[in-house]
Design a protein that fits this description.
Elements lengths: L1 H21 L2 H8 L3 H15 L4 E3 L4 E3 L1 H29 L2 E8 L7 H12 L2 E8 L2 H10 L4 E4 L9 E15 L19 E5 L5 H12 L4 E6 L2 H11 L2 E5 L10 E5 L6 E8 L6 H17 L1
Parallel strand pairs: 3-4, 3-5, 7-8
Antiparallel strand pairs: 1-2, 5-11, 6-9, 6-10, 6-11
Length: 301
Amino acid sequence: MKFKVLIMEIRHLKYFLTLADELHFGNAAKKLFISQPPLSRMIKLLEDELGVKLFERNNKNVRLTIYGEYLQKEAQQVIHNMNLIRNQLDAMKNGSTGQVKIGYIAAIMHSILPQVLSKLKVKFPDINTYLYELESSEQINALKSGDIDIGFLRVPSGDKDLVFEHVHDDPFVLIVSTEHEMAKSDRLDFGQLKHESMISFLKTCPPSKGIKNIFKKVGFTPNIVQETNQINSILRLVECNCRYSIVPSTVLDGYDLKLKAFDLSHFDEYSQLFIGYNPGNITKAVSNLIKVIEEFKSSIT
């Protein structure tokens, strides 16, 4: 019932503004596609409701009173705001505006994520994104609680409430400092590393499984002297300490470090990247981001 009253009040204002522009009941009625009597009644109702006279009228002319002049200015702003609200709601409905809360692992901040966000900005410039750096397990909990809308993570879970889609297979590289003896050669000799110290991911971190399989294929167990879940720590420690590590290749993007990288793609071991989301919490804006990610996938496969 209140909604109907609001529509009637907006209609009052539109009738009033038309008459205020025309200052002629006949001309205003034609512009509104109504006859003159309903327009006169509508203006009378508006004046009675507001308790002021909006127009001075006689047989020769119609003019605004000081109350009418004030209402004209304010009514124009009201109609303008209503149009803005309507346009914003339409934009939210089709997903061209809105917000998306994105969880991500640090390894993709210098590679895949900026590319995806750049494409999103081109197609949907009015979608706002909020970024949260979280480990894969943290993202799964955040997706379930609604703290994030979509996550970029390494390992999907078996949670039936969430959907996971494969995005990219990231091959590994072996890295050493440019000061390391091996950096002088373009050929990787694993035999030189048997007695070297290695910095690696924590065993609970997703890349550690692929790294373990590489060493099985090589035929020796690495001498791991330090483990961490922070990729930035691995890169910096290798750069400074002349130890070595194995990392997903894309983590090197965006860094300018004194490191030499050896391609390990021939081992057919990969650090996989997935997106995860809760299908019960999908907005149009999130749906549009997923479409952008699908387009991105096709460009890199």
